[in-house]
TrEMBL record:
ATP binds at H302, M303, A304, D305, Q306. It catalyses: a 3'-end 3'-phospho-ribonucleotide-RNA + ATP = a 3'-end 2',3'-cyclophospho-ribonucleotide-RNA + AMP + diphosphate. It comes from Natrinema salaciae. Its main location: cytoplasm. HAMAP family: RTC. GO terms for cellular component: cytoplasm. This is RNA 3'-terminal phosphate cyclase.
Length: 362
């Protein structure tokens, strides 16, 4: 048995666990995590983290210890025979079997965070992978489903990730009950160079309400609140506006704004809350979009974090709005796996670069 790479999550949350599991599979290297979610008020595995661990173990035929609620120590050893790559920016043909999986988080735990964990695995798939997850599709502390569908996936597809997402039903807090399917195909990831932002090209608006809120026109009011709040300079022409009423076991709403520009896309989201006017939901998302448009980074703050695993695989450079705690934590974890990650201040932004990606070590 190969020795486990020792990792300490005492100053991190669930993101550390999810990224560590993905890197373990991508590198076909066993890991041992101590102090899982150590900086949270309730450390250890919760339902959504246990669901991620069990899903990754099933896909990678991994041997696992500590897979139980509340566990603060886990060991994870992928059962892959090889993880070969084809060139410095691709993992196609890497020994990870695809197949179909169904996952029930059992709570309103985030569906999108689990999907984000799976996306880099497309680079080591030998055959298509389909994962259907039941849980929360639009919940706090995670990207809403439309952010994943209309921001994350279109952007990573530009660099070679073959991924689609199908929605069966929405699940808002506290009951969850949503369901969606992520489909991945074997993919060749290209180098990511996303430093300069092109001119602003347009705005897309995706506003969703549960059926229980339809009589209050929540989806329309969210969209109108956002459009009223957006800065007039630069002008954001609305190229798509989608207002949807969705069946859900819980009342809730979500709004996602997508800004298209010459070199990429960025997204901004807000969720409805009890007692919060729908217009204010739209204004919150618009405030974030306004800050983005006044800056120079080509990606938003949340995408800055999400792109780092792909950067570690393919190499390249990305200008990000700021080095947040999430960005710093993920960079530290990548460095623990031997990835040289450089962070350089660039005015009000920062540039993150990887010269020697993981795949280049093969």
């Amino acid at each position: 048995m190969a020795p486990h790479r020792e990792l300490d999550g005492s100053s991190a949350g669930g993101q550390f666990l999810r990224t560590a599991l993905a890197l373990s599979i991508l590198e076909n290297e066993p890991v041992r995590l101590e102090n899982v979610r150590g900086d949270r008020s309730t450390p250890g595995l919760r339902h959504q983290h246990l669901a991620v661990l069990e899903t990754m173990a099933g896909i990678a035929d991994a041997a696992v210890s500590g897979a139980e609620l509340g566990s603060e120590t886990i060991a994870f050893e992928p059962g892959l025979e090889t993880v070969a790559v084809d060139g410095p920016s691709s993992g196609t043909g890497g020994g990870l079997e695809g197949g179909s999986y169904a996952v029930d988080i059992g709570t309103a735990g985030s569906v999108t965070l689990l999907f984000n964990t799976l996306l880099p695995l497309a680079t080591v798939l030998e055959s298509p992978l389909s994962v259907t997850v039941s849980g929360g599709t639009d919940v706090a502390w995670s990207p809403p489903l439309d952010y994943l569908r209309y921001v994350t996936l279109p952007l990573v597809r530009r660099y070679g990730i073959a991924a689609t997402c199908e929605v069966d039903r929405r699940g808002f807090y506290p009951d969850g009950g949503g369901a969606a399917t992520l489909r991945l195909a074997p993919s060749r990831l290209e180098r990511i160079d996303l430093v300069e932002r092109g001119s602003i090209e347009g705005l897309r608006v995706y506003s969703t309400e549960s059926a229980s809120l339809a009589d209050r026109d929540v989806a329309t009011r969210q969209a109108e609140g956002a459009l009223e709040r957006l800065d007039r300079e630069p002008a954001l022409d609305v190229t798509e506006r989608c207002e949807m009423t969705a069946a859900s076991p819980s009342p809730g709403s979500a709004l996602v704004l997508r800004v298209d520009h010459g070199t990429g896309i960025a997204g901004f989201a807000a969720l409805g809350e009890r007692g919060k006017p729908a217009e204010r939901v739209g204004e919150d998302a618009a405030d974030d979009a306004n800050r983005f448009c006044r800056g120079s980074a080509p990606v938003d703050r949340h995408m800055a974090d999400q792109l780092l695993s792909f950067l570690a695989l393919a190499g390249g450079r990305v200008r990000i709005p700021a080095v947040t705690d999430h960005v710093e934590t993920r960079c530290d974890l990548l460095e623990a796996f031997g990835v040289g990650v450089e962070r350089e201040r660039a005015g009000e932004t920062a540039i993150v670069s990887v010269a020697s990606p993981l795949a280049g070590d093969e």
